[in-house]
Write a structure and sequence with these properties.
single chain, TIM Barrel, globular, Metal_Hydrolase, Amidohydrolase-related domain-containing protein, ACMSD, hydrolase activity, lyase
Amino acid sequence: MRIDSHMHLYPTAAAGRAVVTAYPIVEYGEHAGVARSDRAGTVADGLAALADAGAAHGVVLGEFELPGAPFPPGGERWWPADPPHAEAREALLAYNRWLCDVGARHRELLPFATLHPGVLGAREAAAHVAELADDHGARGLKLHTISLRLHPDDPALQPVLAACAARSLPVVVHCGPDRHGAGWSLPEAFSPVLAAHPRLQLVLAHLGGAAWRSAAAFAEAHPSAWFDLSEIVAWAGAPAAPTPRELSALIRAVGPERVLLGSDFPWYEPADTLAELGALPGLGDGERDAIAGGNATRLLGL
């Protein structure tokens, strides 16, 4: 069973195209060989992309960003206990409900909710995640800690992570460097999270992104961590990305049984991502099959 473990979907074509345009991929440097998707990222687009790839399921990762992506007030490292952007509360709750409704209507789509510590306080955020999982079909949580200006050890996040760990809900986090040099999403930034929540099923997206050279050491230090191949497999061979041979070696180093296929649709197509996985040198058929869906089947309990 093939599973795309990293997709994004949008209520309208205009919304999807706006997000893709607003987030050009620059961290790997120039690379002419990247296969891009030309779909807008609607629900219908996502279903069609999965069908074209022969995939049974797609994990739909939530994203909620405040205008201008504000930092915690006062230059503080952590978000305050009293959320400074509570006016966006209803919009965030409605977005997560929409995401879960999409999953209820299309059983092949598995919704992962999202949060913002500047919008919901820690206790309410944990309760919201619990409700979404218990009553509305949420299968996990996605956190883009760069967009959220969120250090993973922020106290505002810990009750949420505890709620996810208690329910065996996977948490997917963006992984890679940021242009501010804050280190919000570097692999090592997530070490305190796994130390505090040893039962947490944490998935580092992009196999570390442009910080991929740190992924193997992180995997060795944290044997419960998972990784996905989204984006990085499309950029293999770019100046700040591994070569295809280096990417195969990295998969072997972290353990192919801990690596998930992911396209990052609508930036890229699931079918192209599968082809890129198939072209990586040195991996066996069993390892490719596990990455293409077997590992996600275990992680998600499908």
